[in-house]
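hey
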């Protein structure tokens, strides 16, 4: 099985990945570590038992260190401004200025618009839209000063407009709003920092079998044939996190078509 590449393309780079206790975030962290990045993991679940879902920051940390990679974690609640500031401060103190920021963390409620509570609406917007915006603000000064940086935001096909025939299953409007806003933020920021050689892109996963997806029951008889291996997402993020900021920025990419365009086969995750 693969381990850390001693000649990896991300050697000397510091990557900060949110939502890294399980699922897509964990896979991204492992993939970047395999190419030599020093990874800082963040989530609310630091230890096993902190959440009803399997996986923790400590688990991801042990996995990366077990394959010879460098990693640290910072427990943080991204709905808290103070925690976001502390996260970037502690990540920088651990491994130096952030070269790669991956905004993956999310909190999601599937509730029809008519009965959607404002408290949950505000929380979703805070974690899925404002937190990536704010974290980008926090890492950009150093990136712009060094004329080097990569920001990758994780979106979803939910950001696309629904098409007829409509289904009776509701509840995804707010989630779709968040992802659509994140994508528009991505292209807007990419245009603002283009001259500073900072790339800003989106990877939109397909349907991936993760603990969070399982909680919402999104994989069923009708959708099971669309499930995509998690390696596709991790590989797509890696490709964007090493791409030329002058030619690979402002993109909204679905993982599988991106890899096909680049002629890349996803690496096996260690």
């Amino acid at each position: 099985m693969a381990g850390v590449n001693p000649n990896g393309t991300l050697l000397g780079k510091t990557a900060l990945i949110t939502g890294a206790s399980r699922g897509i975030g964990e896979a991204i962290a492992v993939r970047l570590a395999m190419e030599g990045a020093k990874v800082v993991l963040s989530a609310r679940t630091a230890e096993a038992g902190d959440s009803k879902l399997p996986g923790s920051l400590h688990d991801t940390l042990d996995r990366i260190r077990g394959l010879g990679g460098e990693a640290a974690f910072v427990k943080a609640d991204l709905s808290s401004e103070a925690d976001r500031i502390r996260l970037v401060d502690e990540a920088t103190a651990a491994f130096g200025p952030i070269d790669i920021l991956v905004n993956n963390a999310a909190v999601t409620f599937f509730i029809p618009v008519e009965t959607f509570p404002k408290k949950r609406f505000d929380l979703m917007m805070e974690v899925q839209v404002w937190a990536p915006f704010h974290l980008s603000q926090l890492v950009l000064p150093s990136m712009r000063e060094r004329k080097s940086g990569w920001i990758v935001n994780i979106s979803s096909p939910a950001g696309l407009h629904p098409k007829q025939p409509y289904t009776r299953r509701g509840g995804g409007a707010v989630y779709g709003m968040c992802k659509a806003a994140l994508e528009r933020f991505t292209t807007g920021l990419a245009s603002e920092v283009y001259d500073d050689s900072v790339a800003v892109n989106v990877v939109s996963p397909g349907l991936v079998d993760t603990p969070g997806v399982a909680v919402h029951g999104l994989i069923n008889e009708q959708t099971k044939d669309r499930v995509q291996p998690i390696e596709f997402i991790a590989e797509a993020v890696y490709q964007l996190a090493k791409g030329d900021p002058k030619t690979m920025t402002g993109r909204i990419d679905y993982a599988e078509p991106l890899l096909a365009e680049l002629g890349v086969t996803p690496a096996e995750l260690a």
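The chain is about 40% helix and 15% strand. Confidence is low (pLDDT under 50) at residues 219-225.
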